[in-house]
Design goal:
The chain is mainly alpha-helical. The protein is 62% helix and 0% strand. It has a single domain, classed as Isoleucyl-tRNA Synthetase, Domain 1 (Orthogonal Bundle), CATH 1.10.730.
Length: 154
């Protein structure tokens, strides 16, 4: 996690701006840091463990019913990933991917705080489980593109 924090801190900076090296900032659980992103990923893994949910067998042929504003906000942000990756490749500015992942983590945490997942009635429960799974996969993909491995527990 420490190496990931250093990598993320480096890549999250705009390459044309000044750089300040700070372990305290890099390792913070709040703000635009790798530990913050990893915590969001670990939170989804915790949902999986607590509910005995195998996300891989959840299926993607389920009916999705977005009812809460937080669900819709999260989905809209997830759908921007392809555009962000294309822009990063074109402009060679990985800080844009970092910003996307930070915002994704924020939106997921807002969704998680606002919407019950495991205790929600159907079809909301399945919808929210799928949103959790897709968020975790998106975080894992984005971090791997930055050369950062995820952790299953913190």
């Amino acid at each position: 996690m420490g190496l990931g924090a250093v990598k993320y801190a480096d890549l999250s900076q705009n390459r044309t701006s000044n750089y300040i090296f700070s372990y305290d900032k890099m390792l913070a659980l709040q703000g635009n840091t790798a530990p913050y992103m990893l915590y969001a990923y670990v939170r989804v893994q915790g949902i999986s463990r607590k509910g005995n949910i195998d996300f891989e067998n959840l299926g993607f042929d389920v009916q999705i019913a977005l009812q809460d504003e937080a669900e819709l906000t999260l989905v809209k942000h997830i759908l921007q990933l392809a555009d962000v990756i294309e822009q990063v490749g074109r402009d060679l500015m990985p800080n844009r991917l970092c910003q996307y992942l930070f915002e994704l983590s924020q939106k997921f945490n807002q969704f998680y705080d606002r919407c019950a997942v495991l205790d929600a009635p159907e079809p909301q429960r399945t919808t929210r489980l799928v949103l959790c799974h897709v968020t975790a996969r998106t975080l894992k993909l984005g971090l791997s593109l930055l050369g950062i491995a995820v952790v299953e527990r913190m």
